[in-house]
Design goal:
The chain is an alpha+beta fold. 42% of the residues lie in helices and 33% in strands. It has a single domain (3-134), classed as Ribosomal Protein L22, Chain A (Alpha-Beta Complex). The two termini are 31 Å apart. Strands 1-3-2 form a three-stranded antiparallel β-sheet.
Length: 135
Amino acid sequence: MQAVAKLSKCPSSPRKMRLVVDQIRGKGVDEALNMLKYIRRETSGKIEKLVLSAISNWEQKNDLRPEDYDLFIKEAFVDGGTMLKRLRPAPHGRAHRIRKRSNHVTIVVDSKVPVDMGNKTEAVEAEDQIEETEE
């Protein structure tokens, strides 16, 4: 089962965001988070939060712990958003147009290990029994 996280109307250019997203596409979630921590770009912090959100969405959707299922980034893409158009004064009474770009980022997380939805309740009950025996 896959989970999706989206970031809309992020105020940076799609070209700058794609530089970061292209580096984590197809990687494991842990590896991607480690990479994002050390990428020296402003957008890497936003992508890191988005990956954490996608992991949380997967966890809520499946009621399973993500550590056991080897999650990876299945899809990651950046679309252009709305553009704010501004004017900047130029010589001889003219004006140059400034385009302040925004973007939308979508990240899809999936597990390499197949998640058996039929036995999901049994797996949760087994985890509960293990926790009770440890206490």
